[in-house]
Amino acid sequence: MTTTGPAVRSTVHGYPRIGPDRELKRAEESYWKGAASAADLEKVAADLRLDTYARLRAAGIDDIPSNTFSYYDQVLDTAVLFGLVPARFEDPSTAADADGRLRRYFALARGVQGAPPLEMTKWFDTNYHYLVPELSPGVRPRVAGDKPVAEFREALEAGYRTRPVLVGPLTFLLLSKAADDAPEGWSPIELLDDLLDAYARVLADLRAAGAEQVQLDEPVLATDEGRAALAHLERAYSVLGGRADRPEIWVSTYFGSIGADALRVLKESPVEAVGLDFVTDTEGIADLTAVSGLGSTRLVAGVVEGRNVWRTDVPAAVATLGTLLGLADELTVSTSCSLLHVPIDLDAETSLAPELRAALAFAEQKTREVSLLGRVLSGEAEAGHAAAAPADAAFVDARVRARLAALGADAYERPQERGAPTDLPLTTTTIGSFPQTGELRRARAAHRRGELGEEEYKAVLRAEIDRVIALQEDIGLDVLVHGEPERNDMVQYFAEQLRGYATTENGWVQSYGSRCVRPPILFGDVSRPEPMTVEWITYAQSRTEKPVKGMLTGPVTMLAWSFVRTDQPLGDTARQVALALRDEVADLERAGIRHIQVDEAALRELLPLRQEKRREYLDWAVGSFRLATSGVSPSTTVHTHMCYSEFGLIVDGIEALDADVTSVEAARSRMELVADLGRRGYKRGIGPGVYDIHSPRVPSVAEIEASLRLAVSHIDAGGLWVNPDCGLKTRGYEEAEQALRNMVEAARRVRSGL
Ligand code: GLN
Ligand code: ZN
């Protein structure tokens, strides 16, 4: 296809910050330990920024973004830029020099003695976490830093006139929370006008420094809340756009379409460009058509997926862009969102199967796709490769498909009459993992490197299981676990054993701060060649008379923390994973395991941003859990675990999972969920976490007892389980043991009073 027409430009919304070798992580962690100075860290950061600009230029990207770098998180950067720092971090003794500023910045993110950190939560429906600004009516946004300007200047000196990127004012305020001291009913959006003044100052400073464009990210427009904030949107961009001393304003949206109403507001606002996502859903073109195109407002078209690892189908993208050329006079090709969410370079992988590699593109490859698309649309290049779809024969397993197709409705149902899980009220248990000791980690690393043989490694794991079982018996827990010592990660462990999944060597992406994860790639039909956990659970069971609970990671969580194929609906993929888990569940049961837990830590996380898409999601999410678990006999107890407490949204979903026991986070929300379930007449077991494992603090018997009494006042003690909030793998043995002893004692006291 040849296209003639206006010159089409190319850009990306952002690039990974961690560095090809996780240089940023290493530099930060050594700074935190005191082994490196602020200047050392700043040097690493500056080198990484310049390396990114050079990579983007080498890839042929026309318009290079800046201020996409962050030491920790871009939302935190925005709060600090505008001086929106809670008083507990204002330590007058902190020097105002670079070192002092960095210390305070990291204190906000990680906490210091006497000042707990800002809350951290997921960035929309991704696995990236941002820090939640705490705002109150008393604060006055002001320009309190110069990060965007300094990074612009740094780039300019190196020969790059970049487009600084900032979190937009609407997204910033809608993601912030009211501080505890804010009056009831007050909301951060009330700070909009003051904040706009401060944004306008930064825009003017950027203009003065030589910036021609600035990008304001408004992904919140892809959520129901953002879509409903039209008046604020209109206000924000008429104020910012109305200033004379400003660069061009590009408003970027991503993670879904924003709807014709918000698009109309942006089209009519005095902004020069609007970025839309044409990958995450298909409504972008319909929205543009509904507003009769963008006219002279530049369209930044996100057609290369920024948050998944598949190669772009170039001819299809060219066709989409061709349609878009009819809907806007000026077009820039882009990624659908920042490339923050994908690993940097496919070339760093040495052991992927060639058919799989041919289907993949990481950040580096995606920038080249974007640039190619820009040149094709400008008539300077021929349309290149189609996606090497993972539907290729190498990825298909006819047996898996036939098995799934043959399943009847009964494969998703358990009989409603079931045996009692235990004969105790307030049964005590844990969520699965026990502390991962240094010794364990060292053994795993040595085993990976081939320095520790299979049998020696297994002996280390068995010794750890012996220790965990003996400890639990001594503490007096009722339903025991094996402690998960064989698992590096609850998803990776299974991905390594399932067919249809691949793992990478260097595919790191930032999860939060310096913490990176290496999501496995679910590329083909999934099956289970061999049992995955039976050896460990049965070994643990052989060491005790008490029941040992088997631990599996559920289908939704297996998808949420992986890069997943997009050539078939997620629900179909989830059911394939479920079928593999169903076989594992059957093997565990056959081996005499009477309690089986299928963790769905991420059930809430994959929930679509918009209400209208949620029912369909919950249908397949619940269906796949039930497929995984419903093969068991009525006397086997199915447990599930979830890691958060805002259940309002999915309480129906939780009931529909039909697990016998559901453990959840509750310690920090004062058992609200239990009260809710009580009101609804929930009839299965519930294990509201009675203490917060995210903190090293050991809870007292009295405080756990008080939580339990509160829970018992809402629901029948027979259905109440007693457990911590989550797994113990990030804690030390000493605190974990003491906390569990206190928990068991608290349960005993409440039980005896029943
Ligand atoms: N069973 C897992 C563990 O205990 C659950 C972890 C999680 O919910 N994130 O570690
Ligand atoms: Zn958890």
Total strand segments: 24
Which spans have pLDDT < 50 for at least 5 consecutive residues? 1-5
**Count of helical stretches:** 26
User: Biggest sheet, strands in spatial order?
Assistant: 1-12-11-10-9-8-6-2
Instruction: Please give the alpha-carbon distance between the first and last residues.
Output: 77 Å
Number of spatially distinct domains? 2
Estimated share of beta-strand residues:
5-15%
Helix amount: 25-40%
CATH class of the largest domain: Alpha Beta
Small-molecule binders here are: glutamine, zinc ion
CATH topology of the largest domain: TIM Barrel
How does this structure look, described?
Helix content is 40%, strand content 12%. The protein is globular. The protein has 754 residues and is an alpha/beta fold. The protein is built from 26 helices and 24 strands. The protein has an 8-stranded parallel β-sheet. Strands 18-20-21-22-23 form a 5-stranded parallel β-sheet. The site of zinc ion (ZN) has 6 residues, from loops.
